[in-house]
Amino acid sequence: MSRAKKSKCRSRVARARAARRAAALASQQSREEVASAPVLGIVETRVPVSSDLDTGLDWYLVYTAPRREEHVRKGLEEAGWTTFLPLLRRISTTRHRQVVYDVATYPRYLFVAGVPDGAIREIDGVVDVVRDGPAWARVKPHEIAAIAAFQNAPPPPPQKRKPVDVNDSVKIMSGPFMGFHATVREVLGRQEAELLVGMFGAETTVRMNIGLLAAE
Question: Where is the KOW domain (predicted)?
Answer without folding.
Answer: 163-190
